[in-house]
């Protein structure tokens, strides 16, 4: 196993992590933006008003994108396990 192989596997792992976290972060960002505009318009400064909708949006995003996320991580793990003989041989 060469150092470039280790770096390549690490790069792929980071890419998979970012691809899986992206939709969740985007949902939280958009929900937070909408709630912030609502709070600015109504002058309501309640912390739970921004927390609970973000939690719900992230949960809904996980339900919708969950199968894609599971497929993504299982494909990566399968490729990693299948490449073990070539890495140690």
Q: What would you say this structure looks like, in words?
A:
- By secondary structure, this protein is mainly α.
- The chain has one domain (3-88).
- The protein is 91% helix and 0% strand.
- The protein contains three helices and no strands.
- It has helices at 3-42, 47-82, 84-88.
- Helix 1 (3-42) packs antiparallel against helix 2.
- The longest helix has 40 residues, at 3-42.
- The protein starts with a helix and ends with a helix.
- The model has no long low-confidence stretch (mean pLDDT 92).
Quick recap:
The chain is an all-alpha fold and 89 residues long.
What are the key terms here?
elongated; 0% strand; 3 helices; 91% helix; mainly alpha; 89 residues
SSE order and pairing:
Blueprint (H helix, E strand, L loop, with lengths): L2 H40 L4 H36 L1 H5 L1
Helix pairs in contact: 1-2
Name the quaternary structure: single chain
How is the main sheet built?
Answer: none
Average pLDDT score: 92
Q: What's the end-to-end separation, in Å?
A: 8 Å
Structural class: mainly alpha
Q: Helix segment count?
A: 3
Strand proportion, as a percent range, falls in: under 5%
